[in-house]
Description:
The chain is mainly beta. It has one domain: Sandwich (Jelly Rolls). The chain is 6% helix and 45% strand. The protein contains 1 helix and 11 strands; from the N terminus they run βαββββββββββ. The chain has one helix at residues 19-27, and strands at residues 2-5, 36-41, 45-53, 62-64, 68-76, 78-84, 102-104, 112-117, 120-124, 129-134, 141-150. The strands form 3 sheets. The protein has a 6-stranded antiparallel β-sheet, covered by helices on one side. The longest helix has 9 residues, at 19-27. The two termini are 14 Å apart. The mean pLDDT is 95.
Amino acid sequence: MIVDALANAALYHGVHPRLADAFAYLAAFDPATPDSRFPLDEERVHVLVQSYVTQPPEQKKWESHRRYLDVQYVVAGRERITVAPPASLAEPTPYNETKDVVNYGGAAGEATSLYLEAGQFAIFFPDDAHRPGVAIDAGEDVRKVVVKVLL
Length: 151
């Protein structure tokens, strides 16, 4: 997992060859873009634009991915994202290849919380199960862009 401000994104271009494209999109992101899914580089890089209200942790799902990195960038608002090794989570669902996701039902014994606010991003790798969209204090409006980068 990597957490930083978008202003420092160039530091991470060498982590994966397609991250530069992801960060270029985020740097030029138009806030008027509607919530939807957009391809950037066919299926190698695509974008999910989302607006939601953060919720208590028990109302959010844990997830991990196998084929894509998640670059989660907060455009507006704040949220907590809990992160843990997938092996520390209980009740995994079967891997959904179409959606590239495994969800988990149980609480993590080794969870870490990160707090993202506008202008910050987190990169989640396959070994980073994460539970995004968690309220920090109370529900808060969040506008977020998730860039999915094929490994």
